[in-house]
Amino acid sequence: MIQNFYTQPNFYSRDVIDEFNQLYNYTIDGKDNPAEGVSKTCIVDSVTWQNAKQSLTKLEQLAHHTNTNLFGFNILPFTDFDTINLNTYTSDFESEYGWHNDFILADRIYDNKITVIVNISTEDYTGGEFQFFLNHEMTVPDAPGTVIIFPSWTQHRVLPVTSGQRKSLSFWIKGPKLI
Fold first, then answer.
1. What residues contact 136, with CB distance under 8 A and at least 6 apart?
2. Which of 52, 123, 157, 178 has most Cβ atoms within 10 angstroms of its Cβ?
3. Range in 30-34, 67-71, 103-107, 158-162 with the lowest mean pLDDT
């Protein structure tokens, strides 16, 4: 692994961000499984890859390119049944997601290897900073349109939103279990 994470500011324009927000029209009833023992107060909707892939092809290619050049993980392709989370953090209840990672220790035949997050906010907000913990707290600029890609075992959080609304899209790239 060459880097701990990758960011691409302004990867998406406002027009594309508006298109992503239309994905909310295809949401499914999905069960969100937040990290155990962690505060997660954002609203989470899910959409299947089948309903999102036309809009997310460029992002999928960026994630695979990043893996090839920075991480080198053995990963699997998406299927139409994979889900994408649409996260809404609102100041109405100071939404946040405390320190956690997305590497799930469970009796499965795959592991989450890579996490991909895109800020798809359409309105101004304060708070809601995205942070990593890599030997110290590190705030990562993530203005609307920014993509953040990182190994799923990396500790990260979203600080409370104190005014407005922060929206993000997130998904995980799976691969064979790490042994």
1. none
2. 52
3. 30-34
Q: What DSSP letter does each residue of 40-101 carry, written as one string?
A: B-SEEEEEEHHHHHHHHHHHHHHHHHHIIIII--------TT-EEEEEEEEGGGT--EEEE-
- Is 150 within a domain? yes
Task: Specify the number of domains making up the chain.
Answer: 1
179 or 137: which leads in pLDDT:
137
Does residue 1 belong to any structural domain of this protein? no
Structural domain containing residue 124: 6-176
CATH number of the domain that 153 lies in? Answer: 2.60.120.620
Q: How far apart are CA 122 and CA 110, in angstroms?
A: 34
- pLDDT tens per residue, range 96-137: 999 999 987 677 777 889 999 999 999 999 999 999 999 999
Kindly tell me if the per-residue pLDDT of 28 is higher than 70. no
- Residue 157: both structure tokens together: 């959080």
